[in-house]
Amino acid sequence: MAEPPEHRHHAIDYVELTVPDITEAKRFYADAFGWEFTDYGGQYAGIRDGSGPEVGGLALGTDVRPGGPLVLLYSADLDQTLASVTSAGGRVVNGPYGFPGGRRFHFQDPSGNELGVWSEV
Predict the structure, then answer these.
(1) Is residue 1 very low, low, confident or very high in pLDDT (cuts 50, 70, 90)?
(2) How far apart are CA 114 and CA 108, in angstroms?
(3) Which neighbouring-strand residues pair with 16?
(4) Where would I find the H helices in the chain?
């Protein structure tokens, strides 16, 4: 069995999103980004992005944190990701726009969480 990867000091290690409907949130993130989930009962689901261990979780709750930290995802093809997000039911709230280093956009998932996606190109 392979050793789990080491955690890096001061690196983003885990992101938790509060969602009022775990089933809908899992559907959205699976459709938009291909994420997979580990269910821990009806109150929580761990997020795996295909690169190894869990990188976050979906927590059932009514207090969605729209003013919480902005989580940025990387995309090798920003336009394709934008199409996937909107097709899955996300709402673009800013962009796409250029910035030093690339392009990015912000979106809200169906639960109201705001995230961003950036690309070097």
Answers:
(1) very low
(2) 4
(3) 57
(4) 22-33, 78-87
Helices (runs of H) and strands (runs of E) counted in the chain: 2, 8
Helix extents (H) in 8-111: 22-33, 78-87
Beta bridge partners of 24: none
pLDDT tens digit sequence for 2-61: 445 565 655 556 788 888 999 999 999 999 999 999 999 889 999 998 877 888 889 898
State the pTM of this model: 0.74
Angle, alpha carbons 109-14-24 (nearest 5°): 30
* Omega cis (within 30) before 69: no
CA angle 114, 20, 58 (to 5 degrees): 70
What are 73's strand-pairing partners? 117
Quick one: which H or E segment has residue 16?
Answer: strand 15-19
